[in-house]
Amino acid sequence: MTLEFLLTSLVIVATPGTGVLYTTAAGLTGGVRAAATAAVGCTLGIVPHVLAALTGLAALLNASTPAFQVLKYLGVAYLFHLAWTTIRDKTALAVDPAAPHRSATRVVASGIMVNLLNPKLTIFFFAFLPQFARPGDAVVSMVELSAVFMALTFVVFVAYGWFAAAVRDHVVERPAVQT
Length: 179
Prior knowledge:
The longest helix is centred in the C-terminal third of the chain and has 35 residues, at 138-172. By secondary structure, the chain is mainly α. The protein is globular. The protein has ten helices and no strands.
């Protein structure tokens, strides 16, 4: 594993995208525990990208522009669905610690969907990751690199969620800020 891979992976993970936004939103509405749960879901959403890269689906999507476009537009459609749901929700920001929260299963499932349809991950695993694989044992190398990328994702997303939860706690303590 090279320093270049670690730094590039950290930049890709830390750059705010759909997973970061989802985890931050979970931290704002549900606190640290909800943010960590969302981070688990987003991290699990990476697994299909790893499997696709290992099974050669990457080569198929790389060779077929329409197939990649379909995957990309499915991701966009899902994000529009999340945005529309948020816009239609007329309730106030629930920062009451006693307020009911979504189940952990739903939070994880949504996190998986967010990263499953994330085009940034598709590009990373299909075009970028194979460049760092060792030629002799590419599959083992890609699994190791993917595991490191997933660990970085989890740690960074939990950090984003922790900061969001800290902001949430600051808001809960000040009713004027809620208003």
